[in-house]
Amino acid sequence: MLDGDDPHGAWTPADTALAVALTTLEEDMHDCGWPLSIGSDPKLRMEWVSPPPRRCHACTERTRSAKPYLDDPRGRPGSLTFTTTLTPAGPAYLAGNLDDPRHAPPIDPAPTGGDRHG
56, 62, 79, 90: which has the fewest C-beta neighbours closer than 10 Å? Predict the structure, then answer.
């Protein structure tokens, strides 16, 4: 709320400076996760290393579940947004209430219902 309509009070100069700094950083951010000003610095050209990749299991599931829609041009794949969510075992594991989510009781998948092209 940079327009001064903040119901919790006006921004302090420090708030504004932090917001401007974050915006500047985000505008310089490249796909690799580094600011382009650093990633394109010729003095750092030989200073980059890439560790082995890590698998994001949420992205793996999202890709798997999207494939049937993306392969079907009638499904208007460009208009679809694919997301993932944790099963009930996920939050229990993250909260420390479950040693390993793979040992949780199975859940019944929610009925999908409806026409996917609708």
Answer: 79
